[in-house]
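Need a sequence for this fold. Nothing fancy.
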């Protein structure tokens, strides 16, 4: 995968988010070294990852965040348990003001949101042969105004984790969905996931409260 301006922006933002959490575990000198190594690892992962469409892929931001977290996980495995890392990521997301602000603007039950996912799904399907390691997604029960039902039959983040030899980390990336969707005042119920070996990730998104 080629490095673009977008791929350079994400580690700059995310390193600031996780730094606040990592300071609990690392001295300032060690933390600077860790973040530098994580940034280098992030770029190497991208270079060896298969192309998934670049800026034409509306899920590219999700992929880049996943790559950064995989890189950080690889560089902290010797010090942090997976549970520790999950807590670090959860706390980091909850303090990520920009993401919270953006997600609050998104109505995940709206026709506009469902249409956005449908358009992404059509693009993924059209380019499946060109980008075989991409997502595949569809929207179901479109007429239900109290529910957004999204079904993924392929996930680029699952492919990423398996390719990088950190299959155990897939569940950690999956867990971030519950947090980010809560920023939109929504609840996520997901009985099946590709990461656990199921045939799909079945998202049921409803309004909180």
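Here you go.
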């Amino acid at each position: 995968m080629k490095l673009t301006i977008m791929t350079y922006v994400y580690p700059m933002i995310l390193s600031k988010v996780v730094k606040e959490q990592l300071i609990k575990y690392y001295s300032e000198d060690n933390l600077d070294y860790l973040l530098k190594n994580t940034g280098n690892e992030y770029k190497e992962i991208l270079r060896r990852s298969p192309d998934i469409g670049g800026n034409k892929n509306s899920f590219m931001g999700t992929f880049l965040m996943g790559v950064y977290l995989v890189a950080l996980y690889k560089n902290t495995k010797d010090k942090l348990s997976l549970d520790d890392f999950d807590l670090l990521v959860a706390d980091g997301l909850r303090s990520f003001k920009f993401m919270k602000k953006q997600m609050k603007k998104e109505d995940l039950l709206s026709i506009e949101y469902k249409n956005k996912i449908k358009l992404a799904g059509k693009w993924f399907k059209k380019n499946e042969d060109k980008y075989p390691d991409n997502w595949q997604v569809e929207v179901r029960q479109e007429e239900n105004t109290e529910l957004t039902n999204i079904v993924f039959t392929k996930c680029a983040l699952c492919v990423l984790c398996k390719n990088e030899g950190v299959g155990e980390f897939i569940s950690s990336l999956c867990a971030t969905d519950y947090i980010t969707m809560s920023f939109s005042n929504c609840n996520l119920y997901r009985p099946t996931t590709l990461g656990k070996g199921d045939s799909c990730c079945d998202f049921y998104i409803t309004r909180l409260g």
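For context: The beta strands are 136-140, 148-154, 186-189, 201-207.
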